[in-house]
C-alpha cells in the first residue's frame, strides 16, 4: 500500500484505485453524503466502496494534490476560481440531502449550525482538492462535513484560499492581493452582498470555533488534537484572527467593490 501525503501521517493509504482511511463515528453520515452527491451527478468527490475493519474504502479522485506553501498551479487564478465554482456545486447539490434526511439524527464530527442551508465541507482548503493542470477537478476529506449556513463554509474556504494566513509557510501575497483573491472567490461562487458584508466576522467566528474545538478535543483526551495544541497550531489561528480583525475594513471594502 502506498501512503498518501497531505493529511495526517501514517493513516491514509492507496491500494490500487482504492483509498483506505480511518473509520470514525460520523463516517456512515459522510458515506450517505458522498453517495448523494454521486446520485446528483456530482462526481468530483469520492464514493464509498465499503468498510473493512476500522477503515473506510473510498474511490480515488484523480488529479494532483497540493499543500501550503501555495506555489505553482494551486496558487493560480484558475485554481482559485474553479475551486469556488466547485464549492458552489457541492452546496447546491446538498440542499436535496437536507430535505431528504433528518440531519439531527445523523452523527457529524462538527455540530450543525442554524440555519441549516447546505452541508458545509468544513475544510475546503487547497490541500483537500485535486487539480488537472490549474483546474480544480476533485475534492476529498469530508470528515468535517456538517449542516450550516453557506457563508460558514465560504468564510473558511476564503480564509484558506486568499489566504488570510500569517504563518510564514502558509502566507501568500500582500493584504491587497489576498483581498482581491477573496473577492475573486466570492464572485466565482456567486456570494451575495450580505455574505460579503459578514464574511470577515464569519471568518473570525469560524476560527474561534475551531480553536475552541481543538481545546475541547485535547481536553477530552484526543491524542491528535493534544499534539496539535502542544505544537502550537492554535496559535497561528489566533494570530490570523487578529490579522483579520485589524484589516476588516480593507478586506470588506474590496469584497463589496
Ligand atoms: N479519495 C481520495 N482520492 C484521492 N486522493 C485522496 C483521497 N482521499 C485522500 N486523498 C489524498 O490523501 C491525502 C490525505 O487524505 P485526507 O483525507 O485529506 O486526510 P486528512 O483527514 O488527514 O487530512 C489528501 O491530501 C489527498 O492527497
Ligand atoms: Mg485533508
Automatic annotation (TrEMBL):
<dbReference type="InterPro" id="IPR011009">
    <property type="entry name" value="Kinase-like_dom_sf"/>
</dbReference>
<dbReference type="Pfam" id="PF01636">
    <property type="entry name" value="APH"/>
</dbReference>
<dbReference type="GO" id="GO:0016740">
    <property type="term" value="F:transferase activity"/>
</dbReference>
<feature type="domain" description="Aminoglycoside phosphotransferase">
    <location>
        <begin position="110"/>
        <end position="162"/>
    </location>
</feature>
<dbReference type="InterPro" id="IPR002575">
    <property type="entry name" value="Aminoglycoside_PTrfase"/>
</dbReference>
<protein>
    <submittedName>
        <fullName>Phosphotransferase</fullName>
    </submittedName>
</protein>
Amino acid at each position: 500500500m502506498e501512503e498518501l501525503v497531505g493529511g495526517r501521517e501514517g493513516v491514509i493509504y492507496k491500494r490500487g484505485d482504492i483509498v483506505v482511511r480511518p473509520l470514525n463515528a460520523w463516517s456512515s453520515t459522510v458515506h450517505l453524503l458522498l453517495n448523494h452527491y454521486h446520485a446528483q451527478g456530482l462526481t468530483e468527490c469520492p464514493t464509498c466502496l465499503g468498510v473493512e475493519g476500522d477503515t473506510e474504502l473510498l474511490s480515488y479522485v484523480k488529479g494532483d494534490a497540493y499543500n501550503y506553501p501555495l506555489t505553482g498551479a494551486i496558487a493560480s487564478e484558475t485554481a482559485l476560481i474553479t475551486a469556488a465554482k466547485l464549492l458552489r456545486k457541492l452546496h447546491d447539490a446538498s440542499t436535496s440531502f437536507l430535505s431528504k434526511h433528518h440531519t439531527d439524527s445523523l452523527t457529524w464530527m462538527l455540530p450543525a449550525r442554524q440555519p441549516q442551508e447546505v452541508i458545509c465541507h468544513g475544510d475546503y482548503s487547497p490541500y483537500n482538492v485535486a487539480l488537472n493542470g490549474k483546474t480544480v477537478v476533485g475534492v476529498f476529506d469530508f470528515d468535517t462535513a456538517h449542516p450550516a449556513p453557506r457563508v460558514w463554509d465560504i468564510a473558511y474556504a476564503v480564509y484558506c484560499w486568499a489566504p488570510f494566513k500569517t504563518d510564514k509557510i502558509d502566507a501568500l501575497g500582500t493584504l491587497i492581493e489576498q483581498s482581491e483573491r477573496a473577492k475573486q472567490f466570492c464572485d466565482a461562487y456567486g456570494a451575495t452582498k450580505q455574505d460579503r458584508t459578514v464574511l470577515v466576522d464569519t471568518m473570525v467566528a469560524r476560527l474561534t470555533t475551531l480553536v475552541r474545538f481543538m481545546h475541547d478535543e485535547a481536553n477530552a483526551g484526543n491524542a491528535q488534537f493534544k499534539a496539535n495544541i502542544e505544537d502550537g497550531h492554535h496559535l497561528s489561528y489566533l494570530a490570523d484572527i487578529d490579522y483579520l480583525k485589524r484589516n476588516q475594513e480593507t478586506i470588506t471594502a474590496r469584497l463589496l467593490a
